[in-house]
Amino acid sequence: MRYAVLALLAVYVGLLPTVVRAQPDVTLEIDATDNPLRIAGWLGTDEAFVGNLRITARGGNTNQLIFLPSDLKRQDGDEIIGRQHITLIGTTELTAEHPRDLQVKVSGVSVRGTYTGTIEFLVPEQPRGTARVPIEVVVRERPTLTPLAGTDKVQLRLVRCQHWLLGLDCGLARLFLSESAFSDSFQLQFDNPGRALVTVLHVDVALMGEHTRAQVTGKGLQIPAGPSR
Fold this sequence. Notes:
Helices cover about 10% and strands about 30% of the residues. The chain has about 230 residues and is mainly beta. The longest helix has 14 residues, at about 1-15. Strands 2, 4, 5, 6, 9 and 10 form a six-stranded mixed β-sheet that branches. The protein has two domains: about 20-140, Sandwich (Immunoglobulin-like); about 145-229, no CATH class. A hairpin with a 5-residue loop joins β5 and β6 (about 80). The chain has two helices and twelve strands.
């Protein structure tokens, strides 16, 4: 008889509905200093661009933080950083009323410019739009000048006569040497492989004889003014 009563009690308990205690409403708050979130870095030197964002759970704890980034579009351009390149670094557990710093990492950047989009944070079973933050990624590029082939290393064979002995030395030099030995100018060519504008602030050239080690002074060497970009 005892076994029958226990069996009926077990069946009765099994038929009772499972009561789940509802989690109190949790709201997410983003620090005003991180809204909007701005990230900046240099192209080619940073594998990824990382920014810090401080977030606080109000009204309760949450052990799951849903991260929803959008694609980032470059201003004045068609380039897009896909949302798969935007990730969240750090724990997704938040303790109520305790601010926590998270890191947002943006990778896959290949073109300089300013990219904009949004990132959104959610807790389970809450509607979207409660914690949405604009994001702005500023990608800078260091200007680079590269000498073109043929001008990266210049070797000139020049003659400078002094018109002594009634110009006899100049006459003999021009008789036996080519015209290139008396050239007064040589053009240096550079390439800017990036998209950043290059501003030339100062230009200086030093020349020295290979055998005599004699230096050409400023009076004999002049650089004409040209475009600065």
